Structure formats: C-alpha cells, structure tokens
Amino acid sequence: MRLTSPVTATVAVRGFDGSAHDCRIDLALDATDSLRQIRASLSGDECGYFCAHDVIVPETHPFRTNASYPQQAVADCFADQRASRRSWCLNTDLQAQEKRLNELSNTYAELSHDASNHSLSRRLPTDRETLLDTCNRSQQIESCLKSGFERLVVNYSHETDAARSAHDALEVQLAAKGDAGRAEALIDAYAGVYKRRFPNGLVDGSTFTSENILEVVKVSPDTVYFRTHLEFYNGHTCALYGLASYMQTGTFVFNDPSGVKDGLQNRTCRMQLRLDAEGAALIDPDHGCNVYCGARGGIDGTAFAAKERGTIRYMSLLKNSRQYQESIKLLPAPAAP
C-alpha cells in the first residue's frame, strides 16, 4: 500500500503467483465528527481476475472498531454482533481455549478415523454455537464462556484419551500374528480375483467403462499376495501390490516395504485386506496408501461383493509377473527343521 496523501492510499494488486495485473485499489478516508469510513474503488482492465463473476467490491467501509481480532476470525467477529461473540473476539484466553478444542478434535480424528457426526470435529461447530447462544443470554457472559469452554476442553480431552487407548490397542493387534488356522481357512474360501465394471467419465464429457480388480493368491498358510487396480473419474487410478499377513485384527495386513511416505502425513502405506463371506474390502484409514493413487483416487473403503469373486484362470501368467516375483522375494525363509 502506498500512501498518496494523509487520507488516500493506493494498492497495487498482484496475482497469487506474484504476476502483475492491471488493477489498482484506491482508498480514501472520510473522517468527520459524525462519520468515519473508507471509500474503495477499483481501476484497471484486469480487476475481474480477482473477483468471481458478478461480485461487486463494496464502495464504502464504515468504521466498526479499533479492536485487534484474531486473524482467522476477523470475518466472524465483524459479522456476528452477539455480545457473546464480541466477548470471545476480544478475550485471548477464550480464543486459546477454542484453539485447544481444535487441536483435540484434530488429534481425535487422527486416532479414531471417526467420520460420523459423533466425531469431535463434526461436533465442535455445534458445541461452540450452543455455548455462544447460551452465554449470550447470561448476565455474566465472559464467566459463562470461560466455564463453558473449560467444560468442553475437559470432555474433549477425555474422548481423545479414550481414542488414543483404542488406537494403541489396535496398533498392538496390527503387529501381532493372528491364528494361522483361521487365516488358512479364510484364504482357501475367499482367495481369487474380484472384478467390477462400472461407467466412468472424463472432464471433457466423454464416457468409458472402467474395471476395478483385486487379485488374492495364497502364498503360505497365513499370507496372501494381492494386487489391486482401481479406476476413478477423469482417468485417475490406484495401483498397489504386495504380501499381506493375517494379524490379530482378523485382517491381512500389508506393510509397504518400499519406505515411500505420504507427503502430507509422512506415513508409509499400511493397508488391511478383509476377506469374509460378504466379499473383500481394502482398509486404509490413515490414507497413507494414497501415495499410490492419482489425485482423485483413494484405496480406503474399496469393497468387492462375494458375487464379484472368480477363479484365477491365468495363475501361471500371474506368478511370472514382475509384481508377484518382487513380492515373494520378501517371504521369510522357512524355519530350520
């Protein structure tokens, strides 16, 4: 911003990539005993670059307050005129409590993978709104908010601790071998090739038929080789293969030996394969296996019905494939007699 006089300023606007565009915001301050506002106007041929279609930049901005609001909540603090919201906007202790609630809800989500309406992240907006409404009717708004946020922090902490305990117990099960007899029975009953065809499309409007595939082959009494190829909108795919061993979770667990990590969460791929009378399902709640997917793809939640299973009639070709040969090299050597 360049000050052009004591009551005027000019802002040269640049794109997100730093590129220059022919657009300028001119600001002028009107200040009298009864009025205080800033008039804004756009000039230049490329101002439309910064605005959605039909959006009109307000011409005047009346003075509202000289308070310093939290950066991420400025819009809410200006738009919400409830006394309880204004109290929150000016109280750093209350803001810190809400930040703690956000941290707890994010931790809970990572630990529990709960995507239901009962998850803390889904409940937080409702709990916060209920608290603001309740305290707005209180004679002691600030103390009402303080005790209300403290109560929510305690409740969220208890639920996060419970989610952590359940997560830790699951981690133990995912690392502990399951019953080999049960594993072999599942493999013998439900190994094979699962296929599903479905209509798909591209962003240009063209359509085509896609096919999702999951191959499951027995390589030992408690271990399977699997290969899956999944297709998604606009040509995106997921492709993953390897060995999965039966664990105490009742699923066959694949731990990616490549060491490739997901760039967002810094996790390697760990996928569970569930086989039962209903069919086969791929479970990846951490989404670490999405490193093997295109932008629109995802492995978690993929399921095949029992009726989509067939016999593998190309076993010789499968076992001579690069993917199978790479995988079985990682089989542990048989124990000495």
Short précis:
With 337 residues, the chain is of the alpha+beta class. The protein has eight helices and 14 strands. It is 33% helix and 29% strand.
Explain the overall architecture.
This protein is α+β, with helices and mostly antiparallel strands and 337 residues long. It folds into 3 domains: 2-63, no CATH class; 92-175, no CATH class; 180-328. The chain is 33% helix and 29% strand. It is built from 8 helices and 14 strands. The chain has helices spanning 74-79, 83-90, 92-112, 120-136, 141-175, 180-190, 315-319, 322-328; strands at residues 2-5, 8-14, 20-31, 36-43, 60-62, 192-201, 207-220, 223-231, 237-246, 252-255, 270-276, 279-283, 303-305, 309-310. Strands 13-12-11-10-9-8-7-6-14 form a 9-stranded antiparallel beta sheet. A 5-stranded antiparallel beta sheet has the order 1-2-3-4-5, with no helix packed on it. Helix 3 (92-112) packs antiparallel against helix 4 (120-136) and helix 3 (92-112) runs parallel beside helix 5. The chain is elongated and about 95 Å long. The relative contact order is 0.07. The model has no long low-confidence stretch (mean pLDDT 92).
